[in-house]
Every structure is written in C-alpha cells, then in structure tokens.
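Hi, here's the filled form for the chain we discussed.

Project: internal
Contact: R.S.
Residues: 178
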Amino acid sequence: MNLRFAGTVVMLSAVLAVCALATAENARPSVSGAIRVWSVEKKGHIMTERVTKSDEEWKKLLTPEQFKVTRRKGTERAFENAYWNNHEKGGYQCVCCGLDLFSSAAKFESGTGWPSFSSPIAPENIRTATDRSFFSVRTEVLCARCDAHLGHVFNDGPPPAGLRYCMNSTALRFVKEK
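And the returned structure, exactly as it came back:
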C-alpha cells in the first residue's frame, strides 16, 4: 500500500472517529428547553434556558459580520480578527447569548490566525456537529445555549487532549479578568 495513501486513511479514520464521538456525546436533548452549563460568575453549574430567535431578531442584535459567522456558519479572515493575537487574561463568551465558552488559560498560539483553545470552559457549554461542507468532514463547534456557529475542533492540538478549538473572533466577546 502506498505510504502516503495509508497516512491519509489513518488521518481520515481519526477525524471520523472524533466526529462520531463528539456528535454522540453532544447530541441535543429533546425533552426540555433548559440546559445545565458552567457559569464563571457563579463559579459553578447553573440551569439556563436555550435561546431561540428568528433571523430578523438576530440581525437586530448582531453586526452583519457576526450574523454571517454565527447564524450562517461563515468564517472570518485569518490574522485579521480581534482575538487571534490577544494575550490578556480573561474569558470568551458567545457574542449572541453571553454564555461562557473559553478561558484565556486554555488559549494557545496555533499559527493559524484564529484564536485557538485546548478545551472549552466546560464540555456542556458547547456542542458539536458533523460539518460536511467544502468537500470535507469536520467537527463544528456550536454554543450549547443558542446554537451559534463558533468554529471547528481539530485533533492537532497540544497535550493532554490533543484538541485545537479553532474559533472565530467574531463569534466571541472577550471579558477581561478583573
């Protein structure tokens, strides 16, 4: 077997396994509108309602770029976004609903031009879905409360988990540590 082909098969198998696991573990509960998430302010888990709005409501709350990225699954330009090079201490929230998503403690330099994190602030604050756009299979990362598209997660991050949550700055709001 061609070594290059074998490497591609192994890589695709790993990506598909991560996608399947992420989708199974983060499937949306269908029983209730309430979800359990981690709150930085409360320093613990809280119950909160899901946020659902029409496109017209989102357009009134978001800039055109925020709407394109979070509600239409767009992507901002690399190295031309607000947080790719942010080194301040603090947290990153969903720009749509304010849910705590990532901590600066988990941010690392990936060299991609987008803010990258090794883990979310809590697994229950995000959910994942299989993204089959652009002739590839990727794992999309969404806000657990409002389903905002945040970016994608890849299995080429730092130890111990080896994950890289590659996020769009436009989907995030940075809150500086006090």
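Let me know if anything looks off before we file it.
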